[in-house]
């Protein structure tokens, strides 16, 4: 098996990405809509979208809140270009960053909502916790983070994916960098990682098969 560098993987699939997600990924006809409904309306609302891709979640979010201000971060420049083309009427509301979200400086106390949809199932526990700490700092005191992603059914399944990723990387001589291989974690582990990063309240608000939506609040309200 060969592993493809992450940005190349998504750039190479930009033309078919949306059709693939909406037609072939179980629950995609539901979870983009469910995710969007968790975000309140308001012209001054600021959203940080991590791994925004072509903006499938933003398609739904703009229906509910057409004036929301969005910062979108994605390492695949071709995906971002497609997002720009789709929402060319909203470019004054969208700040798109071509970078990986581990590197991007999110600032402190800026965003009302941070969001990731179907993007974090490629990374280790430590990578995720470090990212969650950055997300937490970027939120206003009343802010919250939404994570919509697919998860492993149990610990045995999670361990299998991580061990396979480690084995394949070793065989290919890959020691660093972002490469496309799915390593989903259990929902319980995801929740615990968010608590470990400092979120005060974490709730699983929706689940369909192996896809869950987690809502993590910066402070208890």
UniProtKB/TrEMBL annotation:
Residue stretches in coiled coil: 73-100
Keyword Coiled coil (UniProt): yes
Pfam families per UniProt: Methyltransf_25 (PF13649)
Keywords, in A-Z order: Coiled coil, Methyltransferase, Transferase
InterPro entries: Methyltransf_25 (IPR041698), SAM-dependent_MTases_sf (IPR029063)
Domain called Methyltransferase: residue spans: 48-143
GO MF: methyltransferase activity
GO biological process: methylation
PANTHER family the record matches: TRANS-ACONITATE 2-METHYLTRANSFERASE-RELATED
UniProt protein name: SAM-dependent methyltransferase
Protein species of origin: Clostridium omnivorum
Organism taxonomic ancestry: Bacteria, Bacillati, Bacillota, Clostridia, Eubacteriales
């Amino acid at each position: 098996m060969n592993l493809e560098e992450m940005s190349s993987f998504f750039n190479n699939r930009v033309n078919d990405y949306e059709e693939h997600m909406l037609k072939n990924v179980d629950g995609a006809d539901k979870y983009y809509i469910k995710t969007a409904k968790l975000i309140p309306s308001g012209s001054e609302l600021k959203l940080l979208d991590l791994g925004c891709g072509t903006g499938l979640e933003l398609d739904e979010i703009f229906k509910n809140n057409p004036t929301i201000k969005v910062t979108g971060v994605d390492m695949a420049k071709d995906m971002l270009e497609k997002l720009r083309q789709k929402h060319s009427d909203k470019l004054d509301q969208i700040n798109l960053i071509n970078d990986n979200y581990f590197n991007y400086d999110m600032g402190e106390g800026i965003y009302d909502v941070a969001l990731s949809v179907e993007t974090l199932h490629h990374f280790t526990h430590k990578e995720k916790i470090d990212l969650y700490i950055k997300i937490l700092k970027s939120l206003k005191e009343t802010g919250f983070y939404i994570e919509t992603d697919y998860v492993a059914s149990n610990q045995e399944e999670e361990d299998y994916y991580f061990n396979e990723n480690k084995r394949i990387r070793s065989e290919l001589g890959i020691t660093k960098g972002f490469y496309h291989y799915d390593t989903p974690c259990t929902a319980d582990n995801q929740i615990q990682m968010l608590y470990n990063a400092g979120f005060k309240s974490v709730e699983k608000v929706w689940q369909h098969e192996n896809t869950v939506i987690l809502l993590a609040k910066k402070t208890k309200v």
